[in-house]
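note to self: dont lose this again. the chain is below, predicted strucutre after it. 268 aa total, dont forget to put it in the shared folder this time
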Amino acid sequence: MGTFHAALDHSLLYEMMFPLAKRIVESLAIKIAVSEAAREYPGSRFPGEYRIIPNGVRLDEYSSAREGRATHGRILFIGRAEPRKGLAVALHAFALVRREIPDATFSLVGPRWEQVISQAPQPGRGLAWPLNGVNALGRVGHADKIAEMSAAEVICVPSLEGESFGIVIAESMAAGLPVVASDLPGYRSVLRDGKAGVLVPPRDPQALAKALVRVLRDGALRTRLRTAGIAAAEDLSWETVATRVIAVYDEALAAAPAARPRRTRTRA
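---
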């Protein structure tokens, strides 16, 4: 058994170790990918059947967030400050949001202040630092993360590329938090092709800002996204996902040849 998690366009490691990787992958009784995006690259290099079984989320850990009272205009970002996660795009979009909703705020879970400053939009782009309303919390504990989910009206997931699934999206839906995310294949599958969240073109701060403003201003839309997101998250519960994984393991074991008896030497 083997599970593929990454969405790749190219992998130097795969290329360098292709003969070994080929033997390993071909020896797998059943191959699992967490999404079509995660299946695409290994499937092109190692053809065959891949079962699509998503990552799971513990629904009970996020149910308390559904009971919280969101702060009007609060946007949330959860992720590392690496370029691929799109923090710079999100900061640019938030500056545009503030032009439409002056009291909007932006809580960042993961990035530290120095990382935010280094990625903030430059004055030459018609935007200025500091960006009022931004609160960089750095790394926080699990309980604090859930509290931030409870206080937000929408979460912004502006990744640029290379996302096979989107665990932050799954957790946010479980928390009843409306999602605005980049239209990447891995995110699209979790958000049910946009039925459980708003998808926008990646690397486009104007489109991201427009979507965030729309969600913040439209209470009926937030309610619809919240309801659809919770329903989608229930299909990703660990109880559901683990049942599917166990069934595949049982299938692999049933198809495996019986173990050969160990040879023993005897004296002539």
